[in-house]
Amino acid sequence: MGKLMGNILFRRVGITTLVIAGMMLAAGAGAYAATKMTLIVNGKKSTVEPISIKGVTYVPLRSAAEMLGAEVNYNGATKSVMIASKPDSSPLGNEGNGVVGSVNGVPITKNQLYAAMAAVGGSQMLDNLIQEELVKQEAKKKGIVISDKDVDAEMAQIKKQFSSDSEFHAALQQSNMTLEDLKKQIPMQLRIRKLVELRAKVSDEEVKQYFEANRAMFDQPEEVKASHILVSTKAQADEIMMQLKGGADFAKLAKEQSTDTGSKGTGGDLGFFGRGVMVSEFEEAAFSLKVGELGGPIETEFGFHIIKVTGYKEAKAATLEGKKAEIREQLIRQKIAELSPQLLEELKSKAQITNTLNGR
């Protein structure tokens, strides 16, 4: 192949543009005795060596182009060299060249970020997205629509499992989630639930058996609702008791003077609690008071307490009729949890799924 003189246009190859200035390119390897040089393309050393003759450097065109991912062909009929770039393999296309960071002027591109994220958790994330799309498509076929009202109702159901808002938000924190994160997950869970519900039938007999086996769990124990003000000395507690007997507002004093950071913000309110929950001295005093009565100072390992009882529930045996709906809902949720993986596997087996990260 003869020498190629003059201007040669190099197209974009992958994400790199080959720029060669002030030199002539030889289509062949060159067979002249001359100064040996090293060809480096994109930081990689080529096994083919350029040569310099009389101040002109000859670079093997095919070697340089192919190292950049291009195809080089010689057309004898038209006496032309054709260079064609291979399709861009980046899933981000030209956007992948965008710079998202840099270190000492060296750029870090979106392609690099994508590759790193795909290597670390990409496979699991893609599986989750595939699963979500499968469920969406199946729900659409079945005419299942999830409304904002459905999401709000499910959120309320989840909150009911916690004794207070603070306990609910603490659980979210422990799961490293926000309220919005949870809300975004609910539609997916509701679609799965509605798809599985047809299989998750619960009979009256199953409800009855569960009630009989767990009767004690459904019985209402004796409970008292109380508020308290906790201080470190008896003198402080006596002073607060005098103010309360003189008509001072209990909640206001609790917010101002109680050292119990867990309850002072709500005016000392501890909610309802049964026996065996509080330390014995506190429990004995709380259960001995009538609703509206003050008690104390009561000394415990935590300090001195002023107690005010604000509510009372008598012990009450549960009935099957009273707990039937609650038990049925609980059993349905259990069955949904058991049957959901089976449903998802069935949907996967019937679908045409492409997963290039896992080579499928």
Automatic annotation (TrEMBL):
Pfam families: Cu_amine_oxidN1, Rotamase_3, SurA_N_3
EC number from the UniProt entry: 5.2.1.8
GO molecular function, one term: peptidyl-prolyl cis-trans isomerase activity
PROSITE patterns registered for this protein in UniProt: PPIC_PPIASE_1, PPIC_PPIASE_2
UniProt keywords, alphabetically: Isomerase, Rotamase, Signal
Domain PpiC: 221-311
SUPFAM superfamilies noted in UniProt: Copper amine oxidase, domain N, FKBP-like, Triger factor/SurA peptide-binding domain-like
InterPro entries: Cu_amine_oxidase-like_N, Mao_N_sf, PPIase_dom_sf, PPIase_PpiC, PPIase_PpiC_CS, PrsA_foldase, Trigger_fact/SurA_dom_sf
The reaction(s) this protein catalyses: [protein]-peptidylproline (omega=180) = [protein]-peptidylproline (omega=0)
Keyword Isomerase: yes
Presence of keyword Secreted: no
The protein's name in its UniProt record: peptidylprolyl isomerase
